[in-house]
UniProtKB/TrEMBL annotation:
Domain FAD-binding PCMH-type positions: 34-207
GO molecular function, one term: oxidoreductase activity
One Pfam short name: FAD_binding_4
The name this protein goes by in its record: FAD-binding PCMH-type domain-containing protein
Family under the similarity heading: Belongs to the oxygen-dependent FAD-linked oxidoreductase family.
Keywords, alphabetical: FAD, Flavoprotein, Oxidoreductase
InterPro entries (alphabetical): FAD-bd_PCMH (IPR016166), FAD-bd_PCMH-like_sf (IPR036318), FAD-bd_PCMH_sub2 (IPR016169), FAD-linked_Oxidoreductase (IPR050416), Oxid_FAD_bind_N (IPR006094)
Coiled-coil features, chain-numbered ranges: none
C-alpha cells in the first residue's frame, strides 16, 4: 500500500522486489549481512523527492523504514530492512565547490569518499573522510568520522560547516552554527534520529601528499608491535601528525594469526621518527610505506578489506596503560580460536587513538573542548567476517561474550571508558547513551523539537535514542 503510494508520487524512483534496480540496491550493501529485502526501495534523485517520500511514509505510521547512504554498516535492520521500506540515498551524490568559500565543498550524502577524493585530488586538496575509499559520506559523518587527519584535526563531523536536512514534516532546512545550532550539534554523532541529511558542506584543505602505508608482520611480532604502539602513545609528548591503526588478525585463509599496522604521518616526510619502533620490527611480510596522496592511501585500504561477507563490528574505549592491551590480546586470541570452526572466519582487533575534542564548536559525542581524549584514550574495534548466514547467531553470541570479557577486564584495571563510537558499534551497545547523561538528554530534547511525533524514533530503524 505505502509502496504503491510512493510509486505514484515518485514515478520511476520506487522499485519492487526482483526489479533490476531493487536487486542492484540490495546487492550493493558492502556486507551480505546487511542485504535485507524490503517491500520496496525508494531512490530519490533530489532533496524534494526525499521530502515527498517522507510525507507519504508519515501517512503510514505502521510502516518502518531504513535510511541508507553508502551501505557500509554491517548489521541487519539498520540501513536496510526485511520488515519495511528502504530509502537509498545513493542518487544524492553530486559534489560541487561552494561559490562563497574556496575551502568548502558541498557533498551529496550518497557519494562515496572515493568520489570526494577524486574531485579534491585534481586540485591538490583533501578532506577529513573515510580512510577506506568506498565508505558513504552520510553514515560516516553523522556517526562522527575517523579520518587520516583525526589526530591533528579531530572527528570529521567537526569539519562540517552546514548540512541540508529533510525533517519528519517533509520540510527542507539548512542547518549550521547559526541556523538550528542545536540540530547541527545533534547531527554530529547522532545519525538518523532527527531527520535525514541530504547534503553536507565540508571544509577541505590543501595537501597533496603525506607519508603512510602498511606493514605486516608474522605472529612472533605480537609483543614487539604492542610495545611499539605503547611507546608511541605513552612517550609523554602527544604527536598530532602520527596515526597508527594497529591490528591483530586471525584468518584461516591467511594461515592463522598475523600482525598489521597502518601508519600515516600527515606531512610528506620520509621515515618519521614517530614510527621508528615499528620500522625496527623484523621480519616484515609486507611494507608499503611511501609518500602518496589521500586517494591512493584510501584505494590501498580497499584492497585489503573483506567484503561480500557476513560481518559484525563491536567497539569499546579505554585509557591506555602498559598492560591492558596485552591482556585484551590474550582474551581475543582465545575467542578467535573458538571461532576457528566457522567457515572462512576472519577475526580482527584494531587499536587506534581517540581524536582531540572540537575546538570551536561541539559535537554530540560528549568530549568537552577542554578535555584531552587524544592523549590517553584508545578506540578499540572487533570486526569479524564469515561466509555462511547460518553461522551468524553463533558468531554474534561469541562476540557479545568477547566484549563482555574485554570490558570486564578494562573495568577491573580501572581503565574503562563508556564511549562507544557509533560507526564501530553493534546495535545492542547503546552507543548514543554512551555519549554521557547530559549529551543524551540534549539529544532527546532535539529529537522532540524537530520531530515532535517521534517519526525517527518509531518508524525509522537504526541506532535509536
Ligand atoms: C570497509 C570499511 C572501512 C571503514 N573505514 C572507516 C574509517 O576509516 N573511519 C571511520 O570512522 N569509520 C569507518 N568505517 C565505518 C563507517 O564509518 C560506518 O560503517 C558508516 O556508518 C558507514 O557509512 P555509510 O553511509 O556507508 O553507511 P550506511 O550503512 O548507509 O549508514 C550507516 C548508518 O547511518 C545512517 N545514515 C546513513 N545516511 C544517513 C543520512 N544521510 N542521514 C541520516 N542518517 C544516515 C543509516 O541509517 C545507518 O544507521 C568503515 C567501514 C567499512 C565497512
Amino acid at each position: 500500500m505505502a509502496c504503491e503510494k510512493l510509486r505514484a508520487a515518485l514515478p520511476g524512483k520506487v522499485s519492487l522486489a526482483d526489479e533490476a534496480s531493487y536487486n542492484s540496491s540490495v546487492n550493493s550493501y558492502y556486507f551480505r549481512s546487511a542485504r535485507q529485502r524490503p517491500s520496496c526501495v525508494v531512490s530519490p534523485t533530489s532533496t524534494e523527492d526525499l521530502s515527498t517520500a517522507i510525507k507519504v511514509l508519515t501517512g503510514h505510521p505502521e510502516v518502518q523504514f531504513a535510511v541508507r547512504s553508502g551501505g557500509h554498516q554491517p548489521h541487519p535492520e539498520v540501513s536496510n530492512t526485511d520488515h519495511g521500506i528502504t530509502i537509498n540515498l545513493g542518487g544524492l551524490n553530486t559534489i560541487t565547490k561552494s561559490i562563497d568559500n574556496d575551502d568548502v565543498y558541498r557533498v551529496g550524502v550518497g557519494a562515496g569518499w572515493i568520489n570526494v577524493y577524486e574531485v579534491l585530488d585534481r586540485v591538490k586538496r583533501t578532506a577529513l573522510g573515510s580512510r577506506e575509499s568506498t565508505v558513504g559520506v552520510g553514515g560516516f559523518i553523522t556517526g562522527g568520522g575517523l579520518s587520516y587527519f583525526a589526530p591533528e584535526r579531530g572527528f570529521a563531523c567537526d569539519y562540517v560547516v552546514n548540512m541540508e536536512v529533510v525533517l519528519a514534516s517533509g520540510e527542507i532546512i539548512e542547518v549550521n552554527d547559526k541556523s538550528h545550532p542545536d540540530l547541527f550539534w545533534a547531527l554530529k554523532g547522532g545519525r538518523s534520529n532527527f531527520g535525514i541529511v541530504t547534503r553536507i558542506d565540508i571544509t577541505t584543505f590543501q595537501l597533496e601528499s603525506f607519508w603512510g602505508g602498511a606493514t605486516m608482520y608474522p605472529w612472533d611480532a605480537e609483543d614487539a608491535a604492542l610495545e611499539a604502539f605503547i611507546r608511541l602513545k605513552m612517550s609523554g609528548d602527544y604527536e598530532p601528525l602520527a596515526q597508527v591503526e594497529l591490528s591483530f588478525l586471525y584468518s584461516v585463509q591467511m594461515g592463522g594469526f598475523l600482525v598489521s599496522a597502518n601508519h600515516w604521518y600527515l606531512r610528506p616526510v620520509e621515515n618519521p621518527q614517530a614510527f621508528r619502533h615499528f620500522a625496527e620490527i623484523e621480519p616484515q611480510m609486507a611494507n608499503t610505506m611511501r609518500i602518496d596522496s589521500t586517494i591512493n592511501f584510501a584505494r590501498e585500504l580497499t584492497k585489503y578489506q573483506p567484503q561480500n561477507k557476513c560481518a559484525t563490528f563491536v567497539t569499546t574505549t579505554f585509557f591506555i596503560n602498559a598492560s591492558i592491551m596485552k591482556k585484551i590480546n590474550k582474551i581475543w586470541e582465545a575467542s578467535a580460536k573458538e571461532l576457528s570452526s566457522v567457515q572462512d572466519i576472519t577475526s580482527v582487533i584494531t587499536y587506534q587513538q581517540c581524536p582531540p575534542p572540537p575546538k570551536d564548536s561541539e559535537n554530540a559525542m560528549g568530549f568537552a573542548p577542554q578535555s584531552s581524549p587524544h592523549e590517553d584514550l584508545l578506540i578499540f574495534i572487533v570486526s569479524v567476517y564469515w561466509e555462511r548466514q547460518e553461522d551468524s547467531d553463533f558468531v554474534r553470541d561469541k562476540i557479545v561474550g568477547l566484549m563482555a570479557d574485554i570490558e570486564g577486564t578494562t573495568k577491573q584495571e580501572g581503565v574503562f571508558h563508556p564511549f562507544k563510537y557509533i560507526n564501530y558499534a553493534a546495535p545492542w551497545q547503546q552507543s548514543l547513551k554512551s555519549y554521557g547523561e547530559e549529551s543524551y538528554r540534549k539529544l532527546n530534547e532535539v529529537s522532540r523539537t524537530y520531530d515532535p511525533h517521534g517519526v525517527f524514533q518509531s518508524q525509522a530503524i537504526g541506532f535509536k535514542l
